[in-house]
Design a protein that fits this description.
This protein folds into two domains: 3-174, Rossmann fold, CATH 3.40.50.1970; 199-367, Up-down Bundle (Dehydroquinate synthase-like, alpha domain), CATH 1.20.1090. Strand 7 (144-149) and strand 8 (152-159) form a beta hairpin. By secondary structure, it is α/β, with parallel strands linked by helices. The termini are far apart. It is globular. Helix 5 (133-139) runs parallel beside helix 8 (214-234), helix 7 crosses helix 8 and helix 10 (267-284) packs antiparallel against helix 11 (291-302). Helix content is 46%, strand content 17%. The chain contains 13 helices and eleven strands. Bound molecules: nicotinamide-adenine-dinucleotide (NAD) and zinc ion. Nicotinamide-adenine-dinucleotide (NAD) binds at residues 44, 46-47, 50, 73-75, 78, 105-109, 111, 131-132, 134-135, 138-139, 142, 144, 153-154, 171-172, 174-175, 179, 267.
Amino acid sequence: MHQTVQVELGDRSYDVEIGPDLLARAGDWIAPLLARPKVAVLTDESVADLHLETLRAGLKTTGIEMSALALPAGEATKSWPHFERAVEWLLTEKVERSDVVVALGGGVIGDLAGFAAAVLRRGVRFVQIPTSLLAQVDSSVGGKTGINAPQGKNLIGAFHQPSLVLADTSVLQTMSQRDFLSGYGEVVKYGLLGDADFFEWLEANGRSVSSGDMAARVRAVTRSVQMKADIVARDETEQGDRALLNLGHTFCHALEAATGYSDRLLHGEGVAIGCALAFELSSRLGLCSQEDPSRVRAHLRAMGMKTDLADIPGELPSAEVLVDLMGQDKKVVDGQLRFILARGIGQAFVTSDVPKDAVLSVLSDALAPV
Ligand SMILES: NC(=O)c1ccc[n+]([C@@H]2O[C@H](COP(=O)([O-])OP(=O)(O)OC[C@H]3O[C@@H](n4cnc5c(N)ncnc54)[C@H](O)[C@@H]3O)[C@@H](O)[C@H]2O)c1
Ligand SMILES: [Zn+2]
């Protein structure tokens, strides 16, 4: 059931190992990277309680010692104070240029630990061990690392590719259903942006993926990682194609800002709703058929996911305010809203040529459905 995906980036290429029970054998993959048998692990308190001892034992089998720092779980950890604590801890642990830092956790830990590794002693190598579905299919691959600023999310960071990614699909069993389905929003995104057959497979097998069928999980993670790896290999620093990964995200970022980045809307939930809106917009602009947005929404519904704006608890601002919030997105280039639209399922493209009125009308109708 074990799969390997290579991220092809010349002398910075690396493997993503995907399959069950990888933590228990982590030493097999990590030992060849080490100059001495010792690693420093950054994690969060929730993940540490559930999985840190399995990792410790998995490293021990090949004689690797580990020390660990567990930061509080949650997005607020991706900030200067926790980042400072992490970097100073790594220095106290005497991590040297030839050592390896390990990130064990979701996207918050992966982003923070990767950035810490990027700046520690001007750059040390790091290994991603993503434990959330979102981190396995998205944040652990591609080398974007960083923290949030008071001015906005992910505004401070660096490109720093990991040396290895170990995506252990068994650890997903301890995720809450809500967090899991939120990560599934990114999985659906890959089908919608570039692989209609994968979307069709998800329509047939999504329930197996969410209910814990291991073979289905490995397949969903593997296909997602392959797609991300291909796009990153083509466009590492997002000069072009990498923007396709932002399908659904322009709407999502406005909704996240409107709900105060709170528990009302998790990131992947916003991505799912955003994908449905992006297809609705594409259909109204005559780019894709009218059936496509309905099909997207039907799948999200069947998975028990948030699908429409009405599924977000509490009040939302007007369509005008949401469009203004989109304008504050860091992906805006010279004030032009950049959208990912689609000519059909699996056929997304990047464009700056979207009339504001069309966006307004999609949002107004979504806010007040007839
Ligand atoms: N670098 C990138 O390319 C990239 C891409 C997408 C998202 N991100 C970032 O990723 C972050 C979101 O990632 P996330 O959703 O993983 O958030 P997260 O790291 O906060 O994890 C979500 C919650 O799940 C818990 N958790 C993680 N694994 C678990 C497990 N196996 N069992 C039980 N609980 C577990 C965590 O403790 C946390 O409470 C955001 O900060 C986002 O900006 C980065
Ligand atoms: Zn995302």
